[in-house]
Amino acid sequence: MRQWLVVALKEIKDNLRDKRAFFFAIVYGPIFMPLMIVGPMLLGAKTGFIDYESTTEVHVQGMENAPNLVAFLKTKNLVAVVAPENFKHKIREGELDAVLEIPAEYGDRLRKGEPEPLFLYVNRSNKKSEKAARHLNSIVNGYSGYLGYWRVHARGFDYELTQALKLVEHDLSSEGVGGLVFGFLIYFILVFTMMTGGFYLAVDITAGERERNSLEPLLALPISRFTVVFGKFLAILSFVTLSGFLSAISLYLIFTFLPFEELATFLKLDGMVLACAFLLALPCALLVSCLLMATAAFTKSAKEAQTYISLLFVVPMVPMFIGQFADIKASANSMAVPFYSQYSLIDKMVKGETILPVYVLSSVGGTLIVAGLLFAIAVFLYRQEKILSN
Description:
The chain is mainly alpha-helical. The protein has 14 helices and 4 strands. It has helices spanning 3-17, 19-48, 67-75, 87-92, 106-111, 127-154, 176-211, 215-220, 225-257, 271-298, 302-312, 318-326, 340-351, 357-383; strands at 56-61, 78-82, 98-101, 119-122. A 4-stranded mixed sheet has the order 2-1-3-4.
């Protein structure tokens, strides 16, 4: 068996025995993190989603003053019920979502063609109340437009004369605002779980072995330092890749089996999208492994390695934030920047935008070059005798 493979299998076997490393590589990153991040976001989106097709009760005070408005609400699946006397207190306490108040003079002012204010009582600090208010507001505004049309029409004017400009917006993205959010989310979870997957192994097989005095016997064997580094790199790479792969599966299961049917109307994250996202992020596994390896080799103790590598967790976010603030346009050059290119490509794919092959080649090439440089640094550090000193 090749020497580098023996080294890799030995490190993998040791890491599997470490329950803490196994937990972070297999459980925490791939399973808990998607649930902790994606779950609340989906629940928040579900809470704010207005289902105009289902029948909803709406509390109205003075509903006898506007029977036509009440009938209109019913056609829009809003069933009016009488609001209690102390409805303001109940809204503050969260016992009621929102109340529409119709003044007694509503009918008289309407017949005179005068504007009549309706009062909507809402608790903006309560998400359910805010959602009910948005729902009611949109329906009442529609009724106001309906009345406005017939007022103008009854006076012999064309209603279109009141519409000097009409702005019609067409969202050309296939996923709308969902693509904007979940493109970033998928990239973040994939790359972040890669970092957590290799974190403890990178610390253990370099600084940890040095503290346990097991590194010196390994380096005393008749094998080259390059072989030792390559074997350790493969061990880290296996856990980094496995963590990223499992996180992609977790995302697929979350989007497939959690009961968020309403979100399927504007968000389509199927298995093919997640599989392509993982393939686009795969070069990051090489880069992350080399980055962890070089950093751990540079430090003098396991504690120092943990501190330095913890700081590295922000590295995948830096190019992305710079790209956001600098509004960098996609090009072959910008796609050569590691992490930023993976984020941009995954974001484009989730939004259904075109991904040019040259962008993918530039992303893979740029990432592999940086990974190769970091690997060379790790080999250089291992060839120094001070790698054995604390």
